[in-house]
Amino acid sequence: MIKNFKDIFDTYEFQDIEKSIYSKTEKDVEIALTKKSLDLEDFKALVSPSAKVYLKTMIEMSNRFTKERFGNTIQMYIPMYLSNECQNICTYCGFSMNVNIERKTLSEAEIIEEISMIKKMGYQHIVLLTGESNRTVGMEYFRRVIPLVKSHFSNISMEVQPLKEVEYRELIDLGVNTILIYQETYNRSRYKSHHPKGRKSNFDYRLETCDRLGRAGIHKIGLGVLIGLEDWRTDSFLCAMHLQYLERVYWKTRYSISFPRLKPCASQIPIKSVISEGELIQLICAYRIFNREVELSISTRERAAFRDVLIKTGITSASAESKTNPGGYSKGKEDSLEQFSISDHRSTDKFTEMIREQGYEPVFKDWDSVLQIN
Question: For the Radical SAM core domain, which residue ranges apply (predicted)?
Answer without folding.
Answer: 72-280
